Amino acid sequence: MSDIHGGNIFKFAHEQRIEPYEVIDFSANINPLGPNQKGLDALHNRLRYINHYPDATNDDVLNAIADTYGVDKNQIVVGNGAAELLYAICRLPNYTGAFVPAPGFSEYKEALKASHIPVRDIFYRPRIDDNGVPYFEIPYLALETFAAELRGQDGRVIVFLGNPNNPDGTLLDINHIRILAGMLAAANSLLVIDESFIDFVGNDMLRDNEQSMRQLIDEFDNIIIVHSFTKFYAVPGLRIGAVFANPNIIKQLQSFIPAWSVNTLAQAYLEAALNDSDYVKRTKSDVQDEQKFMYQSLSAIEGITVYPPSANFMLLHIEKDGITADLINEVLKKHNMIVRNCDNYEGLGNQWIRLAIKDHESNVTVSGIIEEIFKA
């Protein structure tokens, strides 16, 4: 497992000689509402059973996920966080190469490396649209051309894409994905779509999210959707994620996941949290309000380009001489804050930072400090 992620508040607190609860962490993209109360109540009630093994079938969890997302139970497998499932996917046999987005989540490459699968980058390019709004362009045509060339060859590949992509928040276009999935299917190749942040996108309830590519798993046997619950339900310390795919792939993945991979407390929490529709509504409302506030506040600062957020995080490009991501982090450290320096994202560098969207008070504070840095 790579150690190049955000969210290490314990290390930061130790270095700053403060308590972890004093850290205001903008480096990890977690629901600003915090853990779901119904889930926490269920977790506390389940504590009496920690002297027993968890349900190895994950039956109740699978039923809750199936009901919430409108997916058949035999199209779901759960694991100890989305990361464990990425590693399981990369163990599927007879794949000779892979493509990952750049910039993109580093664990794709780590999982592929663990399975000795050669990997190439799919470079997303920063662009400005006709209205002056920045975005990252996905090279669909290049991907489709490559997929067409694969047909009839011996090699089988895995293509990873994020929806929304981390760290830039770019959403996939379903029409392009249909074309790409069909071409990859003709070449016996896989399309893996990481939807770890999809629940933050849009106004719809979770099963009706039109931005999700989950709707394509009945149409294409070669599409795998990776889904995280720890971001939206604010429990990265518990670890639970899922894969949605056709039943044959699900059976293969189950064989790579250890027994009792999902612990009894994570099971209890998620079963209860998934039944709380009010939490979903409040999360979406709060995040969308804070998206607007953060985008407007930071876009007003001369010397920063802000990429419009689609989920609970946003990407900033620093364009003022003398200011770097390191400098911003050093200043924010004095206020017990962390942001994500993007210098280890392929295709980015020390002029890029990613900010989680948090509660309003924290967002006001961090945007004010960043504004002062650029005024100095």
What does this structure look like?
With 376 residues, this protein is of the alpha/beta class. The chain contains 12 helices and 15 strands. The protein has helices spanning 9-16, 37-46, 59-69, 82-89, 107-114, 140-150, 174-186, 247-254, 264-273, 277-299, 325-333, 360-375, and strands spanning 24-25, 76-79, 97-102, 119-123, 125-128, 134-137, 157-162, 190-194, 223-228, 241-244, 304-307, 313-318, 337-338, 340-341, 352-356. The chain folds into 2 domains: 9-30 and 278-375, Alpha-Beta Complex (Aspartate Aminotransferase, domain 1), CATH 3.90.1150.10; 37-275, Type I PLP-dependent aspartate aminotransferase-like (Major domain) (Aspartate Aminotransferase, domain 2, 3-Layer(aba) Sandwich). The strands form 4 sheets. Strands 2-10-9-8-7-3-4 form a 7-stranded mixed beta sheet, sandwiched between helices. The chain has a 4-stranded antiparallel beta sheet with strand order 11-12-15-14, with helices on one face. The model has no long low-confidence stretch (mean pLDDT 95). Helices cover 36% and strands 17% of the residues.
